[in-house]
Each structure stands twice: as C-alpha cells, then as structure tokens.
Amino acid sequence: MKSAMHEFPRVTLLVALAVAAGCKSDSNSDDDGAGSESGEPTGTAATNADSTGVPDVCEPACSDTEVCEDGVCVPSCPCAGECDCSCSVPGPECPPTYNCMADNECSGDQACFLGYCGAVPEACATRPRLLNPTAVPVGVGEGTIRAMTFANLDEMGTRIIIARGTDVIALRASGGKVLFSGDADIVALAVGDLDGDGDPEIVVGDNAVPAQVTVWTRTSTAPETWTAGATAQIAAAEIVLVDKTNDDKLDLLVRASTGVAIAPGVGDGTLMPIAGLVTGGVGSFTLLEYDGDTAIDVAFSDLNGYHVLRGGLNQVDPLTGMLDGPSTQMVSGDFNGDGIADIIDVRASGTLIGWRGPLSSTAGAQGHSGLTPMLFAKAVDLDHDMHFDLVLVDNNGNAKTIYGTADQIDSRVPLQCEFDDAVTPSAKAIAVGDQGDDGAWEIAVSNGNQVVMWRWS
Hints:
The chain is mostly beta strands and 457 residues long. It has one helix at 10-22, and strands spanning 24-25, 48-49, 55-56, 66-69, 72-77, 79-81, 84-85, 111-113, 116-118, 130-136, 145-152, 158-164, 167-172, 175-181, 186-192, 201-206, 213-221, 224-232, 238-242, 251-256, 259-263, 275-279, 284-288, 297-302, 305-310, 315-319, 327-333, 342-347, 351-356, 365-368, 374-380, 389-394, 398-404, 415-422, 429-433, 442-446, 451-456.
C-alpha cells in the first residue's frame, strides 16, 4: 500500500540535466546529429566546432575520455547505440529504463511510482481507496463465470450481470436470477440499447462451433422474457457497443483472432452484415475521438506495433512506440484534464506506454506499474475530478489504482497517486462499474465460481 508522485526530487533533476548538457557522444556529433568528417576522436586540443561554427579550444588538451565543450573539458558520453547512451534521454523508439520497482529501493521518505523514485504529494491522502470486500451471492447457474459487466436493466439500477456457462444472470442482494440461456458457453457480453426504445439489449458471444454473437431483447417484463434476435458468426474475445458510424445508432464491434470486426446497427435491434474493420492479429484496442474530427477512432496493437484507424478518413496511421511484449489492454480517456483523450497501452510485462491527443503519433510517455503478468486494465474517473484514472489487476490478484493528474513530466504517463491492494487471484472475469448509481465505483472479480466486490471510498 503506497502512494507516490511521478516527479524526480528537484536536486536529482538538476544534476541529471547538468550531466546531460555536459556530455557529448564519442562520435562528437554536433546539434544537428552530424558526426566528424574524419571519423577520428576529437576529444583533444584539435578543436571542436559548436552549433555556431565557433571552434572550441581546450588548453591543456582533453584526455581520451573527455571532449572539449566551450573551452572546458567535460566527460565524453560513451554510446553503444541510440538506445544505450549514458548521457542522453532515450527516444520513444527505445525501451524504457526505470530506477526502482519497490518503495524500499528509494531513499528517505520517497516512494517508487511507475518505476521512478519521488516524494509523496499531499493530494494522495484524499484519493478514494479500494475497501470493504463483499461476497455477491450467485446461487444459480452451472459452469464457469467467464464474462461480467455492470448494467442498468430496470428500476433496480446498475448491477452486476454475469455469464456463467450458457446462462446470463443478473445479480441482486438476494441472489442471482437467470435472464436467459444460450446454446453454448458464453465467453463475452455487452449491454446497450440497440433498438432505441430505452430498454437495453444484451449481446453475448459463445464458443460454439462455429461461434456466434447473438443479440437478446427483453420482450416481456411479466414474466421477464428475453428472446434471441440478430446473430453474427464470429468468435468474440471482446464485445463493444458504440456509435462507430456516427449515425446515432449503436454498432457492434467485436475483437476476434482475425482482428476487429463491425456490424453496424440499423436502429431497430437488427444488424447489418459483419465485416472486417481492422484485420490481423489484434492484441488489444480502444475507442476514442483522437484526431479532432468528431468521428470515433480505433487505436490498436498488433504484431507490427501500434496504429490508429481514423474514423473520419478511414485510414490507418502508425503510433510510434516500441512493442517489446504482448499488450494486455489499450485504454483511453482524458488522464491529464486538458479535454482531449489520451491513450495508454498496458502490457503484460507491466509497462505503460502513453500517447496524448490530438493525433500525437509518438509515444511520449512511459512508466512501469510494478505488476506482472498483467490481466486487466480499465480507465474511469473514480474521484470525479475530470481526470481519468487507471485500474490494474495482475494474474496474482494484485490490484493497483493510479490517479490521473495535470501535474506531469512529459516523459511519464499523466498519473500521480498510486495505491496497492489485493483482489481475487487468478480471476476469470473482472468488471468496474457504479452499482446502485450512487457515484461511488466498485470492482467485481470472479474466480469462475464466486463473485466478490470491492468499493472505492
């Protein structure tokens, strides 16, 4: 349990800047990156030319481990490569380096936050904490709980909806109620109003052969009856309902082994034929308005790196960043409070890589969560301060809440206060939502048989 800020202490930062300013690479490159014409070491009295063209002369001559800078001998900067240079800051194409992974690796009253030591800001003391685990009774259905979400289906308000085996079950204080049963085990689900009547549909993806996605509509409330409707043949790993086509009608987006597919909604609960939106082995994706044209864009990762499908132009542009391991989940939200959505990729290794909108194609922010192997990530404004926050869970049941902030260093993801907690290990399904619509958020975690819920308060 800890909290920390993302800034270096002032003294450390000044020293780092001073060293960087005084270092030159062994190639003696000048400000525009050009090396010496002769290719010979120039750390001698034989002069260097600075960016103004005025030669630098050092008397006496500099040693072999120094270079002449403005008439002063300073240590040279040995570089094994662009990403391994002791006196320069690695660019976004380089893997990040960190100076800590735990609080005990930092000195004094500092704490380790996102891989860097720093002081603990006073604001962290007022952030909501993940407290009060409560068992949520299920009591019905058979099989493994593989999918879960929070949804508002009726006058009872927002509650947990789970997929257990072939059944979709609404959880209440008194226990679970089976809403409907499919023909095969359900592995993904989402809730949204596809027909515009104010009564939401439930969309499920099963593991049948061939697998399909099915839209279920409530056709009666007394007794409560759900009827299967539109279908699409695709094996869904993730289902999202969103107005991707910008026509005020929810569309169906599915992440599958073949990429991300879309079945545009007609507005009456039916769907147009499903078609590929992003093809290939997509590791994860997130939806946001990224380039300022009001159309929904799709940021995603695949074996070739990071990309964004720009909805208004229907073109794929690269997002620069080094993909050094599998992506668990890409999330998006306004983390720094500037009114523009940002992207953070959460890798299985625990590394966080960030991009800032609008249309910042270069990964300008990094960090390390200290959790691995990562299992779940969600972006939500937990404390209602107009900054999205990040919720993380690893496969060992370690949970972490990290809060968004406008106070940031450009090279770090815009997050500030961090708290460690524990949830159910080896979780099969996780969801974050506001049960009861009271403004306080909860996280529900299932080990496949039971559901436990924690509350941020």
